[in-house]
Amino acid sequence: MTETSLPELEAILLVGGRGTRLRPLTLGTPKPLLPTAGVPFLAHQLTQARQAGVRRIVFATSYRAEMFREAFGDGSAFGLTLEYMTEETPLGTGGAIRNAAQALTCGPDAPVLVLNGDILSGHDTADQVARHIARRAAVTLHLTEVEDPSRFGCVPTDDEGRVTAFLEKTPNPVTNRINAGCYVFTRSVIDTIPQGEVVSVERETFPGLIESGALVLGYADSAYWLDVGTPAAFVKGSRDLVLGRLASPALPGPVGELLALPGAVISPEAKVDGGTTVGARAVVESGAQVSGSVLGDDSVVCSGATVTDSVVGPGARIASGAVLRDAVIGDGAVVGPGNELLAGSRLWPGVTLPECAIRFSSDV
Ligand code: GDD
Ligand code: MG
Questions:
Q1: Does ligand 1 come within 6 angstroms of the Cβ of 309?
Q2: Which helix (H) or strand (E) holds 208?
């Protein structure tokens, strides 16, 4: 990681989204606070930002704003100073950045890091900042390559790395290179975003800057990168952290096949692997098989149940012989014996699924 020469680097963290694609997990908890590899998701981003030289972060909050302060307080546990700015109604990504910028202390020429609050990235943020300063850019966007760019901001560049267009969620992407959700803004550029208005940084600010001739730079690399905005991606992010595919100083235990939180009880006759997190006081009974999954605090996986690449919410119970694959089970829900929940199935919090209510069968 490149050492930054800017000890007082400030950042804005965008955490006001509703996390709709992650329901029911986000019904009670905002996406950035979901337990991921044993800690709130943002703990990974906060510790990485600290390592990259950030010392002060302004949270741009909206949905369930008060929960962020409860979780992270003044930030001293992370060696950071945290401030909280709240939009009464969501202002969009650009409006949120402008609103949060009121709490920045830096001058107009200083670089400001802006982060989407649902990204795991192994890229060298300090080097991105250094490149931004060296090229005197207006904005420098981290770019990564994905298989399906239509779900993201598609970002073509020229040979010098200059961004030539910003095409948010276009059905006809011109490149696989996309906006990875980590920007360096020159502070004065943030101040040109209209105050108190709903603005999309992706659909308005970036295209407007490019059109006006401002230098919008791409910082492309091939480091680990993931947007955890869907259940499949969320569970992948958690298991990749536990397995050490992305190093995180916030991981509350050694890298390995599983992470067991305090009070977890795992039978010696159970098989738990693939980067599974077993929540505090959760129980995995004999003969159960759990792989690549997130088991919430106080959840129970009974004997002979199989849980693969799934999220089991806090206090939920998976009965004997039930099978989960790519499933999300809400807080306190009960999956009765013999059920099979596959391929994106979601059970809402508190629901009890009677014995053998749902089976996906390939033999009919
Ligand atoms: N404060 C605030 N207010 N935050 C918001 C608002 C708002 O009105 N709307 C969204 N956010 C936050 C979300 O909480 C999230 O952290 C971030 O802004 C991005 O929103 P997502 O809803 O996750 O957007 P996306 O994943 O569809 O697309 C964005 O990220 C992609 C990379 O993962 C875009 O920036 C794409 O261009 C990009 O490729
Ligand atoms: Mg996202």
A1: no
A2: helix 206-212
Q: Which residues pair with 104 in a beta bridge?
A: none
The string of DSSP codes covering 115-147 is EETTEEE-S-HHHHHHHHHHHT-SEEEEEEE-S
Domain architecture of the chain: domains with CATH: 9-227 (3.90.550.10), 257-360 (2.160.10.10)
Query: For 307-332, what is each residue's pLDDT tens digit?
Result: 999 999 999 999 999 999 999 999 99
Q: Please name which of 152, 199, 196 lies closest in space to residue 171, comparing C-alpha atoms.
A: 152
Kindly give the number of the ligand 1 atom that is closest to the alpha carbon of 61: 1
pLDDT, residue 170, reads 94
Residues with CB under 5 A from ligand 2 (ion): 118, 227, 229
- 206 CB less than 6 Å from ligand 1? no
Of 312, 273, 269, nearest in space to 288 by CA: 269
Residue 119 burial (CB count, 10 A): 24
Q: What is the reported pLDDT for 7?
A: 53
The one-letter amino acid code at 162 reads R
Q: How far is the CA of 95 from the centre of ligand 2 (A)?
A: 17
State how far the Cα of 264 lies from the Cα of 295, in Å rounded to an integer. 10
> Are 68 and 86 a contacting pair, CB within 8 Å?
no
Of the candidates 322, 313, 318, 288, the residue with the CA atom closest to the CA atom of residue 303 = 288
Give the pLDDT mean for 49-63. Answer: 94
